[in-house]
Amino acid sequence: MPDPVAVNSMFGRIARRYDLANRLLSGGRDAAWRRRLVAAAQSERPADVLDLATGSGDVAFALGHALPAARVVGADFCAPMLAEAERKRGSAGAGAAHVVFREADALALPFPAASFDAVTIAFGLRNLADRARGFAEMRRVLRPGGRILVLEFSQPYPWFRPIYLCYLRWILPAIAARVTGDRAAYVYLNESIEEFPGREVLAQEMRAAGFTAVTAQALTCGVVALHQAAAPGAAS
């Protein structure tokens, strides 16, 4: 499992070029993936939404725009990433006004139980030192019937895997080194993606954490997946 101190330091180093690197390294697909997440979160009109591992705030701002009546909280344990999110607030549109950012550890969230109708996390679950504990915290802060939406790298379709691994191991770190000046951060990205479980295993982990109605949708030849599930109990 990742070392939280090392992960925090790594994201702090690349915060200012994080968005640019994401666009380049995904060929612009990261924006489309996040739109799928936001559209899924929007579908049930939650009143209170927590975006974990919010990073530079892209998902939180998009949720603020899609859900103008909702309370949207973006939480991350990396202060430089949150500073980057605040820097972007002025250009993020009208929906940014009611987005609040909090420095918080996903493994020990500073929110009361049953505080949110939805919890989203985009490309952050992979970085948690203890996924089971993270899922337990997400379930704790959800209201009965609330939803968890996880957008994360996954394992590609078998026919695409050799191409994808070639890109991850050699092309991605080289491009990232030029863009961010931090090759090591993207070697970690490659390794963490390769080691992350596929859709079926992650769905099993979510069920083991007590979530119900678990689904997984493969995106872009399976390299990314959108997982959705519900906290037990009747919707509030």
Summary, kept brief:
The chain has helices spanning 4-14, 18-25, 29-42, 58-66, 79-88, 131-141, 161-180, 183-195, 199-208, and strands at 48-52, 71-76, 99-103, 116-122, 142-153, 212-219, 224-230. By secondary structure, the protein is of the alpha/beta class. It is globular, with a radius of gyration of 17 Å.
What does this structure look like?
This protein has 236 residues and is α/β, with parallel strands linked by helices. The protein has a single domain (4-154, 196-230), classed as 3-Layer(aba) Sandwich (Rossmann fold). 45% of the residues lie in helices and 21% in strands. A 7-stranded mixed beta sheet has the order 3-2-1-4-5-7-6, with helices on both faces.
What is the average per-residue confidence, as pLDDT, rounded to a whole number?
Answer: 91
Principal-axes shape call: globular
- Discrete helix count: 9
Topology pattern, helix = H, strand = E: HHHEHEHEEHEHHHEE
Q: Total strand count, please? A: 7
Largest sheet features:
7 strands, mixed
CATH architectural group = 3-Layer(aba) Sandwich
Spatially, the strands of the biggest sheet line up as: 3-2-1-4-5-7-6
Q: How far apart are the first and last residues' alpha carbons, in Å?
A: 35 Å
What helical percentage do the residues reach? 40-55%
What Rg, in angstroms, do the CA atoms define? 17 Å
Please describe the topology of this protein.
Elements lengths: L3 H11 L3 H8 L3 H14 L5 E5 L5 H9 L4 E6 L2 H10 L10 E5 L12 E7 L8 H11 E12 L7 H20 L2 H13 L3 H10 L3 E8 L4 E7 L6
Parallel strand pairs: 1-2, 1-4, 2-3, 4-5
Antiparallel strand pairs: 5-7, 6-7
Helix pairs in contact: 2-7, 3-4, 7-8
